[in-house]
Structures are given as C-alpha cells and as structure tokens.
Amino acid sequence: MSFLKISSPAAARRLFLERSGAVLSGAAVALLAGREALAAKSGDSKAGDARILNTALAAELEAVAAYQVGAESNLLQKPALDLALQFQGHHKAHADLLEKTIRKLGGKPASAKAKYSFPVETLKNQLDVLRFAAGLEQGAVSAYLGAVPLFATRDLSKAAASILGDEAMHWAVLRQVIGENPVPAAFVS
Amino acid sequence: MIEAVALAAALAAGDPLRGKEIYARCLACHALAYDRVGPRHCGLLGRRAGSVPGFAYSSAMKKSGIVWSKKTLDRFLADPTHTVPGTAMTYAGVADAQERADLIAFLAAADQSKDCSARH
C-alpha cells in the first residue's frame, strides 16, 4: 500500500510507524538514553542544540515535500516509486523525532512551508527525478556531518549520526539505481 | 618562499570546477536560483547578509552587518557558528582553505551562469 493512497494523515502516520519501527528505534534509543543529559544542559546549550536540530528539521520537511513531488510527478515507475516512498517515510520519521527533541529542549520546532521551490521544469523523466533526489540526499549527508560536532549534548551527535547513516544509504541506493558508483569514496564530506 | 607565493596565488584564484563538487555539500539547504532552507546563492557576492527579500533569516544574520565578499565568505565558511553566533547555518564549516577558495570561485562563476542570469 502506498502512503499516498491513505486518506487520513493519522492512519498514514500509524502505518508508517508500524512499518518503520526498526528504523525509528535506532535514533529514538539514542535520544531516550540522553534524556537526563538533555535535562542537565544549560539554557544556552539547549538553545544551541535546538537551533541545530531546527535547521535539520527544516531540511527533513523539505525532503518529505520533495519526495512527494517526485511521487506525484507520474515520472516514477515501480520499483523506483516504492523506493522513493520508503525514503520519504524515513525522512518523516527523522522529522518526527527532531520535532519531539526540539520540544524537549524547550525550542519551537520549524513547521513545513506552505510552498516549496523545486526545479520541476528540469525533471523530465525518472532518471531526472532520481538524480535530483540523490543530490538532496548527498547534501543531507554533508549537512548532518557538519552538524554532528556542534552539539553540546553528545547523545544528540549520536542521534544525528544515526540519521546521517540512513541518508547515506539513501544516497548510495539512488546512485546505484541511476547507474553511478554507489559508494564512490572511502569518506563522505 | 616561491612555494608560499604559489600557494597564496592558488588560494586567491580558486578552481570553480573543484568548487562545483564541493558545492554538493551545500545542496541539503541551498540552491543557486531559489530559496530553500537557506537563501539562494545567485547574487551572493556584494549582497548584504540577511537581505534576500522574503527569506526568513535568523536575527543574528540580519544583524551581522556582513556584506558578502570573497574575504567575508571565506571567514564565514571556515566557521559559520562562531563567525555569526546564532546563525541558522549550523554547520561546522569548510576547514580547508583551498576548498573554501574553490567553493567561492564556483559561487562567483555561477553568478554569471544562465542559472543565475534570470535572477539579475
């Protein structure tokens, strides 16, 4: 069943959480383990960490929207469509966890924009859509890599690294699908 | 001495082709021609920080007083959160000076490209 075919957002969310429990648990465990550490941090540290998470949340919400555009473009055929929806689900899970953590830190989570800008005029076929998605995932890997050393709370670095790993897998799979070397280097930057 | 001069020249020039590869790191949040999580990069050099109309900047960036030049970009990209405390660009930075020079060279070249021409 496609997430796009579920009429109720609540039902979609339930289904998604049921199906992605294993994925969600890795990052969630990191945060739950850090609950006391979060509470112990100073106000400035919490505010700084919440700011980092909010930037990540905004990017995750945009990624969810980007995959939605791809899914609704009629340019993706199965199994690429299923892959895109699965990855979109992961980004929803990341966003959900980031939102909860920002609230835990006393911050105000970013909301999804009413409208996003995407270069839809350049997306003419499935390869274009998947290549665009791969670029976003590559950027996401770099963004999380750049965020990991900034957290005052190390458990948040761990959670961010967990998300980074997931998005690196998205990037590798998308590269494989579009015919590029899935793992082009020993390091990401 | 000669090596130092050559290195300084390379840093000053930057390589836009290498910079394009480095720009892939920015694509989680930025695009050249349109605003995303971060503001568009077309027209960046010479622009006052926090001044793209309609983009929701952090108050820290709006108040930074920075005008983007090769020099100010180099400093910011090296360590964004310490250069502008409170910036929403919560990214550790590009530590390598040559990579920053290449990235800035790409941004300067991209501003002359067709991707950006419609924005001028």
Q: What distance separates the N and C termini of chain B?
A: 42 Å
Number of strands of chain B: 0
The biggest sheet of chain A, with number of strands, parallel, antiparallel or mixed sense and barrel status, is: none
Average the pLDDT over all residues of chain B and give the rounded result. 90
What is the gyration radius of chain B calculated from CA atoms? 14 Å
At the fourth level of CATH, the homologous superfamily of chain B is Cytochrome c-like domain
Question: What is the class of chain B in the CATH system?
Answer: Mainly Alpha
- CATH class of chain A equals Mainly Alpha
Count up the helices of chain B. Answer: 7
Structural class, from secondary structure content of chain A?
mainly alpha
Helical residues, percent of chain B: 40-55%
Identify the most extensive interface between protein chains: A-B, 26 and 19 residues
Number of strands of chain A: 0
CATH fourth-tier homologous superfamily of chain A:
Ferritin, core subunit, four-helix bundle
Morphology call of chain A: globular
Poorly predicted residue ranges of chain B? none
Question: How large, in whole angstroms, is the Cα Rg of chain A?
Answer: 17 Å
CATH architecture of chain A: Up-down Bundle
